Amino acid sequence: MLDWGVPFGEATVDRLMLVGPDGEVKDANGDPTGAVNTAGYNIHAPILAARPDAVSAAHTHTQFGTPWSANVEPFRALSQESCAFVFDQAMFDDEEVEVLSVDGGKRIAAALGDSKLCVLRNHGLLTVGRTVEAAVGWFVMAERVAEVHVKAPAGSPISDESAAIAASTLSPEAAGWRVFQWLQRNLVPDTSVVE
Amino acid sequence: MLDWGVPFGEATVDRLMLVGPDGEVKDANGDPTGAVNTAGYNIHAPILAARPDAVSAAHTHTQFGTPWSANVEPFRALSQESCAFVFDQAMFDDEEVEVLSVDGGKRIAAALGDSKLCVLRNHGLLTVGRTVEAAVGWFVMAERVAEVHVKAPAGSPISDESAAIAASTLSPEAAGWRVFQWLQRNLVPDTSVVE
Amino acid sequence: MLDWGVPFGEATVDRLMLVGPDGEVKDANGDPTGAVNTAGYNIHAPILAARPDAVSAAHTHTQFGTPWSANVEPFRALSQESCAFVFDQAMFDDEEVEVLSVDGGKRIAAALGDSKLCVLRNHGLLTVGRTVEAAVGWFVMAERVAEVHVKAPAGSPISDESAAIAASTLSPEAAGWRVFQWLQRNLVPDTSVVE
Amino acid sequence: MLDWGVPFGEATVDRLMLVGPDGEVKDANGDPTGAVNTAGYNIHAPILAARPDAVSAAHTHTQFGTPWSANVEPFRALSQESCAFVFDQAMFDDEEVEVLSVDGGKRIAAALGDSKLCVLRNHGLLTVGRTVEAAVGWFVMAERVAEVHVKAPAGSPISDESAAIAASTLSPEAAGWRVFQWLQRNLVPDTSVVE
To answer: Do residues A79 and B97 lie in contact, with contact meaning Cβ atoms separated by under 8 Å?
Structure first.
């Protein structure tokens, strides 16, 4: 996880902290080597434990995902990108919006199940991936999907049959990984900072 | 078409690929020289084949055009710029949002007919022009029109009679070409990168 | 007026053209010296003729003013800044959204009357001032007022009595002039480009 | 307070003016040393007088706080950050939107009571803190909460019981102070300008 207090814009590989399964940030001698956001640990650790296929979970509070989550409704097939999620999403309809314990994270993991996306009620979006790239790629795509939902409150979704056809190419893990490649190419022209 | 994976911000003339009518990207010897977005080929090739007057089609997923398209409604004469489209638009009311084959593009071309704009349901906007400049100019103008529609859901359009008068100067091809000139002058101060 | 085709971002004093009362841009010998947007002339000339107190009118198509104008409703006292306009605004409820002749501008001038703001139906905002600074200052303030109206469609205005008290300090010409000073100080750190 | 007319972007410690309890900006000899926004004095002085625990109040007109205030409704527990305010907010349901006298500020102070946030009807947000950092941190957090409310007009809040649990960690003064630290680290990489 990112060293506590480091802004995303300054995040580089050497600012990442290795967190033990018990939430401790220590070196081989048991001495503290840094600190992490406890709520982050409470959310991520149980998810990664429950989902051996996932190596990464992404969550932050965003311009559209967080407002959308206040509606406590799943995504509908309102746009092409929505089809990546409509058959592979979960709702955490639980009022623990500040995840104060690992128990809260366990309940999120239970709600998430096998899905790639969980809408955390009144909180925001959470995605998982088999790679860091896919977790982040899905998160950004889900944010764009939330934007469509917020801006088209009376929109008409396509049918499940049609959404399933689109999902066949948009929903596989490789599609999320690809979104990340585009983001990286656009936003991090000099990738040496993260290598 | 743009070389597969090159971000719009890095698009220069030497990153464009010549795509054959069969979707192949090959040199004179039949050897592959690059790759393009297959869905892009599936959409653009049938449109250009069906519309000999058009040399370019523009389509991407945008902040207002994509949310608006989820309403499955044509533009109304809500703003001056809307008048460029209200008598020259089509709706692709088809649930193929991920265009997986040339057949999908043929159906888009059939829906488009002789119009300059096609609203692709739950997908986004698509415009065509007799020049690349007009196709792009119409696309950007249509995006601004979509913005007005999203932000004025209860707006009152002007009458068809009045919209037709405004369309007489706003709808001709030269008006779309002119929008592009303004965009270029604002966004690409050094046009040598695209010459 | 600005030389035809020069983007706002490149507007400097030496790019302004002196336009005669007949819309001609000529030197003392009657030779053309440039060109201006005809619709701009059609709108501005009759307003300046009808309002000898005004030396400038401001109008462009904006993110909130244009969508708001599609509602064909005057501003209400929804925010502090709204009070500068609620007793000093007019509605051009006319479907000529592309002002093709001086006659259209004369009708706008008639609708404007003695007000500082005219909402041009399905078109956008227009403000006048006794100085260029005030016309621009009012325009930008009106755009912020339109933003509040678009984002608070169910808002409750304050009473006319209370709005009148706020208007006593916010509505006088000097308040619009002052808005411009802040804009200039924020946006044009080096004012030598416009001096 | 900031010297009258200095934009926020140029605000540095040496541009701040010390304002006397009577609103005067004078040196030891009684000579004027600068000028401040009178409305600012009218609002801030009575609040600081009524709240000896508060050393700072923050108020400006914002993209979401001002539109939200036109609804004349308190925040609901629509998002995690909302929980910092739902038990610690007040409504100034008074139509004095341009605070022309210290009396107006006294009524705001009375409405504020012991809360950290006061929604000023048709005007905007106002927050107080025991430190400048907390006042500003709460203000920015309240603006984000207003954004969620504007974008999720039909949102469902969590229960008071659940909101109270989240408030136990999000509402204390230290949480507002911490928001400021993040803002400073993101926005002012070189803090020497404010030291």
So the answer is: yes
Query: Which residues in chain C have their CB less than 8 angstroms from residue B181's CB?
Result: 5
Contact A128, B60 (CB under 8 A): no
CA distance A86 to chain B (A): 14
CA dist C43 → B164, C72, C89, C97, C112 (Å)? 20, 19, 17, 11, 12
pTM: 0.95
Min Cα–Cα distance to chain B from A2, Å: 28
Cα–Cα distance for residue pair C65/C80, rounded to 1 Å: 17
Distance CA C55, CA C129 (A): 6
Q: Which residues pair with C59 in a beta bridge?
A: C126
Chain B residue numbers touching C68 (CB-CB < 8 A): 151-152
pLDDT (tens, 9 = 90+) of chain A, 195 residues, equals 888 878 787 888 888 888 887 888 887 787 877 788 888 999 999 999 999 999 999 999 999 999 999 999 999 999 999 999 999 999 999 999 999 999 999 999 999 999 999 999 999 999 999 999 999 999 999 999 999 999 999 999 999 999 999 999 999 999 999 999 989 888 876 777 655
From the list C80, C154, C185, which residue is nearest D98 (CB)? C80
- Cβ-based contacts of D95 with chain C (< 8 Å): 158-159, 161-163
C-alpha closest to that of C71 among B5, B24, B157: B157
Sequence letter at residue B25 = V
The vertex-C11 CA angle with C5 and C15, nearest 5°, equals: 75
Residue B98: which of A144, A157, A169 has the nearest Cβ? A169
